[in-house]
Structure formats: C-alpha cells, structure tokens
Amino acid sequence: MLGQDQIRRLLLDALRHCPNGADADIYLTATEQALTRFANNRIHQNVAHRDAVAHVRVAIGRRQGRAVTNNLTDEGLADAVRQASEYAPLMPEDPDFPGLPEPLPAESVAAYDRATAGCDADQRAATVGMVCRKAGAIALDAAGFCRTGETELAVASTRGADAYHVGSFSGLLITARSNDSAGWSKGGGWRMTEVDVESLADEAIDKAVRGRNPQDLEPDEYPVVLEHYAVDDMLEALSFYGMGAHMVQDGRSWMTDVGGQPAMSPTVSIWDDGLDPAGWPVPFDAEGVPRRRVEIVGNGVVRGPVHNHYTAAKASGASTGHQRGATGGPTATNLFMRPGDQTTEQLIASVKRGLYITRFYYTRLAHNRGCVMTGMTRDGTFLIENGEITTPIKNLRFTQSYVEALAGCQALSSRARLNLNEAGVAMHVPAALLAGWRFTGQTV
Amino acid sequence: MDSLIATALDTARARGAAYADIRLVSNREQRIVVRNGVVETMTADESAGLGIRALYDGAWGFASTRDLTIAGADLAAGQAVQIARASASQNGAGASVEVLLGTPVSSQGSYSTNISVDPFTIALEDKLALLLAADAEMASVPEVSARMGNLVFIREDRTFANTEGALVTQTIYEAGGGVQATAVGHGETQRRSYPQSHGRQQGCAGWEYVVAMDLAGNARRIAEEAAELLTADACPADVSTDLIIDSSQLALQIHESCGHAVELDRALGDEAAFAGTSFLTPDLLNGFQYGSEQVNITADSTSDTGLGTFGWDDEGLPAQSTDIIRNGEFVGYLMSRESATRLGLPSNGCMRASSWNRIPLIRMTNVSLLPGTWTLDDLIADTDDGIYLETNRSWSIDDRRYNFQFGTEVGREIKNGKLGRLLRNCTYTGITPEFWRNCDAVCDAQHWQLWGTPRCGKGQPGQIAHTSHGASASRFRNVRVGVMR
Fold first, then answer.
1. Considering chain A, what percentage of its residues have pLDDT values greater than 70?
2. CA-CA 20 to 30 A from B476: which of A196, A296, B229, B296?
C-alpha cells in the first residue's frame, strides 16, 4: 500500500507543475491483487500484481489535456502534468465543459479489512485445495478462482479536491463440472470472512449433481425464477446500456422516451449508493465528487440517470459523483435492488411450468430500445413443474428486453446477495420471479 | 537491462524454480475520441513493468512489478517462486498433472513492426483535424443524434528471456481508427459504423494505415445510412434463408465460432469457470468435419498488418502459420508449450500476455478464412432469395462455442440475384458446425480483408487481447434469421 500521506504528497507536488491560469486534477488508482486460479481440481495459474496509475487532467478555459502514467516518481508525475499542459491548448474549445468541480467533502466509509488485503498465497491455496478435494471426492471437476487484495483511490486538484479511500476485496468463484452438467457459485466483498467457502462449494456441487442428464426443451416464452446471479446480469446491462446521463442525452439509453414512466413492475426499485457498506463502497468518483444516492427506478417508474460534472452541467444540475474512470461517461456501479418478502422456495412454488435459471452468459445488447439482450443460460438451468424443480435442461438462448422482463416482475426474494465483479462493479440484488422470458434457441 | 534479467532468472533458479521466464514491457498509447464535435478523450498513456513466471515442483507462480530496478526484479522473482510453492502445496488436492514444456526454447533476435510512418511523429493537430472533419460530415445529417470518431496509436517494446537461453526484443506498433453515427427517430435508434463496428479498425501498422481509411470520405455515407435505417423494413421475423455475410462480420464469426473453439486451454478445461470450454475436444482432432470443403482456416502470426503479428510469442516461439481447418476438417489447435506437450505436439506459438502484469495465455493470432474463387457480384447473382449482411452490431455464443447469435447494423434483401431493399435489426443464429458445413461459396482474394478485433477478453484476472481475422464475403445456406423482440 502506498498510503494516504505518500499519495497526497505525490499529488500535491505534481500539481505544482500546473501552469498559471490553468486548473488540474489527478486521479490515482493503486491496486495490489493476488489471484489463485484452478481448473480440473488443481491450481494451474497463480498470480500477483501491483500497479499504480495517475490520470492527469489539465484544463485551460474550456480546453482539456490529459496524460496517464504508472511512473509515480516526482519526475514521472511532473512529466505527466507537463504533457497534459502541452496538449490542452491544442484542443478545440468544448462549449459545454464546465471546468473542474469545486471541492466537496466526501464521507469516510469503512471498506478496508487488513486481514483480507494481507491474505497470502498459502491461505488462498488452502481455500482452493478444500474446494478441489470436495469436488474430486464425488468425481466432479472444480474450476474457478480465489482472489484478494486492496485498491487505493485518490483525487487532488488545484481547486482544492483532496480525497482518499482504501478498500479491500475478496472473491471466490466456483464452477463444479461433470461431463454433462455444471454448477456455479460466487461470493465476495470487502471482507474475506464474508465468503463462506464451504457453503459456496456445496452450492456449486449441488447444482452439478442435480444437473446430470439434461433434457431438451422447446424454446418458447416461460415464466422464470432467476437466481441473484442472473438478476445481477440484468442490472449490469441496464447500467452499462443506459443509466449514465451521457447515453440519455444522446438518445442511446433504454431510458430514452420512458423517463418518468412506469416502464417496470411496481415491485421494482433500483438505486445506486456508493456509501452503503452492504455493497462495495466507494465514497467519491474520479473527479473527487462525493457519491450521492440516486434513485434510478422507484416502484417501477424510471426516475433518471447518474451524472458526472459534465453531464450535470448540461442538464443544469449537480453531479451525483458517478464519473467512474478518468474518461468515458458516468456509470452506476454500486446498485441495489429492493428485496421482496418471499423465500426463493416460495418463488419456485408459485410457478406452474417455468424455468429456474442460475445465471446468464455472454449477454450482449441486441437493441438499445428496451435494452434487448441476447445470451445463454449456464451452470444450472432447470424445469419447474407444479411448483417444484424437476428436470435439468440443456442451456438455452434468449432474446429478451430486460425492461419488458422487469415489467413482468411478480415477486422478489427477501434475501439479497452481493455480486462483486472483478472490475469493482457491485450489485446487491435478490432472486426474482418474472412472468415471461423469451427463449429463442437451445444449444447441443 | 541484461543484469536485471540475469538477476531475476538467477533468483528464480536459486529459489528452486525448474523453469522461469521474464518479460519487460514498456507501453505507450495515444487515444483520441471526438464525440459530437468535441474532444472527449485525448490521452497519452505510459505504462512499464516486468512480469516473472516460475515453475516449481510442477506448479506455476507469477509476480509482477512496476519497479524496474534490479531490487524490484529480484523481489518479484522471489515472490513468483513463493507463489508457485503455494500452488504446489495443493498438488495432492485433486488431479495431478505433470507440467512438461517440451523442447527447450532458446530463440534470439529482434523484431519490429513494418511501418511507413511512425504515428507518434504526426502532430496532434493533424490527428484532431482528421477526426473533426469526419465529425462535421456526420453532423450534416439531421437525424444523427450522436457522433463518435476515434484514433488509437500504440508502441510497445517487449523483451523476453527464459532460463533456457532465450532472449528476444520486439517493438510492436498498432494504429487504428473509426467513426460511428447514431440516428434517433420514429421510435427507433439505429447505428452505422465505418470501417467496422466495435469502435474502429486496427492493425499492426503506422500512420499510413489510418490515412488509407479515409474516415472523412465515408462519414457522411454511414450517417445517411443510419438515418435511412430508422424507417427501413425490419428483418423478416424468424425464418430460414440464404445469407451472404460481408468480410467484417464474417471476421467476428470466425473469431467466436472458430478462433476461441480451437484454443487448446479451453478444450482441456483450463477456462471452464470463465470463458468456457470447447466442443472441439482433442479426440476430434484430425477426424471431425467442422465445415464444408470450401472452409480453410489458418492461424498466421506473420500476416501483414495483423494484430496477431509478431516476431515471437510470449514463450519465445517464432511467428508461424499453421492450418486449423483444412477442406472443412478440424486439423489444428492454438497452443502453448505446456498444452501442446500434453497432446504430444510442438507449440505453434500462441501464448500472449496483454500486459507486463498478466501471464501469457493461449490467444488467437490472425485466424483467417482463406479466399475462395467467387466474385461478390457473381455470388449475389447466383443467390435467388437471401440477405446480404454487413457490419457487426451484437454477438453472443455459448460456453462450448456451439450456439451463436449475431446481429448486424444493416441488411440488404437479395431477390433473384439482385440486391434490394434495406433491412434493419437483422440477426442470425445457428449451431457452429452446422453453419460452417452450409458454407457453399467463399469470395476470392480481391474481396479478402484482414480485420482487427482489439477487445478480446479472456482470463482471470481479465486480459484484453488484440487479434485479427481475414475473410472475404461468403454464402451460407438455410440460416435462421430475424430473432428479435
């Protein structure tokens, strides 16, 4: 870990190289990650890396120049500031550029666990070994990873921004396979102690065992019970294809033409909250603006997107603190979906004939309007008949509007689980019962 | 640098590594994005570091650092062996696989991408002028609500050495560019891209590669096509028909349904938890009819301007061309030293790492469909009823690379041997070997083009590889189209 004091000194020293009459900010990310990967019941890849990257922006009037470096010596950072300063005057003016944001104090949020950040290779190997032994004992192959590490984020600017945050992370992903079935589980968060290794191993193994000898099913529209892994995929897609204000302003978002309207079921409420410790908290964005809680869908009504300083100025509003990286648009990365009041078993029990889906795979946008996605089911697809899971089904292809599907959301589980991906996107979501899901093909 | 390399490899050996290799990488990247007439992104990125791989007691470890001092390299080497020891400690937990690397690799030499003009010598003003001119052309079409143009230039200097005596240095240049227009109206959103989608066309090349694209000269055309698509007829819903697929879309079809399917690590289960496995299991090698006799596919890391073109892979194997599909038969994998040895074969040099802080994985190089004999005009004239599809819009395939579905930005009806009305929201879907066995015509070399796919994801931690695929327009009989809601 570089530490707050060292980072602050480096950034403030570098900002002194900003030319007179200009403004500058520096967004720094420093990550140490170790990941132990396994397949066929053995560790086949085992890696560690550390890197720190400074993203420099210099603004002269309505012109911006940028430079990025992982050379964090005083000289390396000074060179980056000089480079960005040389670029800025060459840029055409952007009439919508509002300048750098004024500094606002960000709340401090607990998201660092020393034991998690310091977890060593032997500890990860022991965790993986336990999973492999459990799978191997019943002739299944286990694959997946165990990862731990820490990320430091900092922003400093000539306007006075001075923000620092450190968070730890952990993750355990397991796929258990036989020659004709597979099961999946994944856990993670900012504390390794929240990862229940035994339970996750059992979850993946149970699916693989119950999935043996999968059957064909005629592709059609069926009611579905989606595990939280599949709901996580839906929210990620809705986030990346339309919750950023830049996409709404361009007319490229699924929110286009449905803002303020009840596009989803009243059971559906979705919000972004970078401060809730139940997620993977990040208290400020890449511009140093404090993260604000943003209601995106409230009781089925589409409320609005998340903003950075630029899109907010265009909309005559205030940034919600969602500039995720140094470039690109604002992104919702700490999403929560309001749970319901049923158990997953009750969701299944209410389906006469439908499908139980563990997760989706390779989902891609087929059309912006309605966020139409195509993808496959994977690692545990089962037929539900008369309220009970009966038969494993071969993986199915779907082509489905995620917005329409959530318009048919009938119920949600009372338990929500955190899905933290490797890019730091965290979705805290329940399982869902949806009235219809359009399957359009089946694999071999 | 020599002493840094020697120290790292000596440390790995001294700590007990049976094999070790080191890569030192320095990457410089310039990325310019103009969106709706303003410069959204203009960055100069620099990243440098080293990564060390060590094999101890039949298990791998890897460590990396941006500390390019001898002390930093020494520390990373020790950490790599320590991690390998942790891997080895669990060797008894499950299946035991002895890691063998086959014939030692002791390549020596240097390589540089063949370029005419170093893109980093071109003034920033000239690059901006190119993008702003293209943007102005797109802005002249009133239905267009979002415009994007971008340029990317990369220079990467790599040094590889191993404990078997290899020492190679390479300088790889990449250049890329593209424009994209999104039109909104009539309750629709439609996009057109040039030269291809996914942001840009990219190759191992210099500034001349971008100039030849003539972005400004094509920008208004694609903007007008995006506007025209708003009121075009929809693709016929859920019917089977004959398709002629253009070169760029076919390149992605090859990438997804062949390139990934012939990665030997996938076939052996190493990617089972993430990227998936492959239906092309080793028992099918040299005995499975993957496609029709028209289908010949190679993996060629020597192709001019290919993003998978280099001097040596990241295990020190020299660039080469090998057959993957010959007259429709599956005859070759993309391989590493370790995986090839498990099949009793030599590696064909497909190990590539995306950065100094990532391990090499089996990645595509330039996996291409070889040209056939048809002209495109003759092929269209020979098609009674079908659709001509251009430019990828969506792509998805299952975890064994069987069931795929693609969407394209544009379709054109073919009736009685002639191109007809424009079609929007076109999709097609199928099962990989059935689809390729229904390929009955491949256009000739004058229609063949190498397309860059610079965003190929694989591995955990994630890696983005740059690959290329060559193809010419080809015909596929009886394909299901129009799966959209």
1. 100
2. B229
